Amino acid sequence: MTAFFALTTSLLWGLADFGGGLLTRRTPALTVVVVSQAIAATVLGAIVVATGGWSEAGPRLWFAFAAGLAGPIALLSFYKALALGPMGVVSPLATLSVAVPVGVGLFLGERPGLLQFAGIAVAVAGVVLAGGPQLRGAPVQRRTILLTLVAALGFGTVFALITEASTTVTGLFLALFVQRLTSVVVGGAALAVSVRRGGQAVSEGGFPWASLPALAFVGLADVAANGTYAVAAQHGPVTVAAVLASLYPVVTALAARGFLSERLRAIQAAGAGLALLGTLLLATG
Q: Assuming Cys at both sites, which of 8, 39, 161, 191 could form a disulfide with 219, CB separation 3.0 to 4.6 Å?
């Protein structure tokens, strides 16, 4: 069961990342985040009402609230990075989010093993190589790498918080609803400020109504992935769930290769691969 739900997480996250990256190339990233999360929050609200999830309300929901604050920052940074750089580089680097749970463990007194130390070294090398250098052609922009690392930190924080927000399935629905509702409020406020300062909420052609199904898919796939990951972690070793769930960049890279014919330079591919390998070492150590 752990393997099934964790691999489902990889599939959902990978497809959501691919869809979000494509949408952000045509629509402002903040609008993509707010609309997709609003759709997810609406669906989750209906599920909470249908399952009686309100009965699970308690102090643990503060973890979900905190996750909702961190989520928009992570998603906005990630979608901007996907819009600026190759998906095959950005997505694997984002898996460095696993370093956050490792850091929490260190703070609580755990000590990393040799595999974790090796994972840190390999992941750092991957970050450097994924952005260049190369003898010819332009490297991936430093801004893209920075945005991806900010996203990874945000995602890792969300994962650490959301796993503490519930202990039951109905409680998980409620926690995910609170998280998404908070994200919509925070993202909506940021969008309003951006528009007031002269930014654009939509492209020049107006709101992309034709993209509404894709926006819905991105939001629902993302929240479903959070749910399946939580279930996977609750039914088996967290390390196994983390390793299998961290394979989602493979889905994104394959989608980018198949639909966009995206090709990576050898040094970028090597860097992305090292970052993914480092992530797996951190998770299994």
A: 39
In the DSSP assignment, the letter for residue 25 is T
Q: DSSP assignment, residue 56?
A: G
Report the C-alpha gap between 224 and 253 in whole angstroms: 20
Residue 203, SS3 per DSSP: strand
pTM over cut 0.90: no
Q: How far apart, in whole angstroms, are the C-alpha atoms of residue 73 and residue 275?
A: 22
What are the tens digits of pLDDT across the range 37-91? 999 999 999 999 998 888 888 898 999 999 999 988 988 898 888 888 777 778 7
Roughly how many angstroms between the first and final C-alpha of the chain, as a whole number?
22
Residue 206: helix, strand or coil by DSSP?
strand
The answer to whether 77 touches 201, Cβ cutoff 8 Å, is: no
Angstrom distance (rounded) from CA 202 to CA 207: 6
The CA distance from 15 to 197, in Å, is 33
Q: What is the spatial distance between Cα 14 and Cα 46, in angstroms, rounded to a whole number?
A: 26
